[in-house]
From TrEMBL:
It comes from Coptotermes formosanus (Formosan subterranean termite). The lineage of its organism: Eukaryota, Metazoa, Ecdysozoa, Arthropoda, Hexapoda. It comes from the Eukaryota. This is RGS domain-containing protein. InterPro entries: RGS_sf (IPR036305), RGS_subdomain_2 (IPR044926). SUPFAM superfamilies: Regulator of G-protein signaling, RGS (SSF48097).
Length: 155
């Protein structure tokens, strides 16, 4: 899929095409992409492009989003959601045996604060697991920026 076709898909999703300020922000670091719903959406679209083998990364991004939702929920921690997050983390993330052991202990805990702390750790590992593909994403953003500048020169 070309970058032009990719832009066409963006127009059909309810999110606008990235503006220059979005591109500038998203290329500062992965936290800027993950901390922005529009950035998350465009990153997920990038990962879902036909012909690319980013399925595992798409799952990791979805895991990151689920972690974020659980961390930021005001009410008590949904223990089954936490257990599901821990299960997905073990399936998709590169984690040390110590972290896996901690997750197993905490998954049976009733302590919401302790569960949220472990979910934050999972979220950080998920973010780190996305860095390589994030770098590829930023290259595509730079290409997009160059195409926008060229289009302005042609007009």
């Amino acid at each position: 899929m070309s970058h032009i076709q990719w832009l066409g898909i963006w127009g059909m999703t309810g999110f606008s095409k990235p503006e220059e300020k979005d591109l500038n922000k998203w290329t500062k670091g992965i936290a800027y992409v993950l901390g922005d719903p529009k950035g998350q959406h465009h990153f997920k679209e990038f990962l879902s492009r036909p012909g690319c083998d980013f399925e595992k990364h798409t799952q990791i991004l979805e895991l990151w989003v689920r972690c974020d939702a659980l961390i930021n929920q005001a009410e008590s921690v949904n223990q089954s959601e936490a257990q599901e997050i821990f299960s997905k983390a073990q399936q998709y993330l590169h984690m040390t045996p110590r972290v896996v052991s901690d997750l197993q202990v905490v998954s049976e805990s009733q302590d919401g604060a302790q569960i949220k702390e472990e979910v934050k750790k999972v979220q950080e590992v998920a973010s780190n697991n996305l860095i390589d593909v994030y770098n590829t994403f930023t290259v595509s953003l730079q290409t997009l920026r160059s195409q926008k500048k060229l289009k302005c020169l042609i007009l």
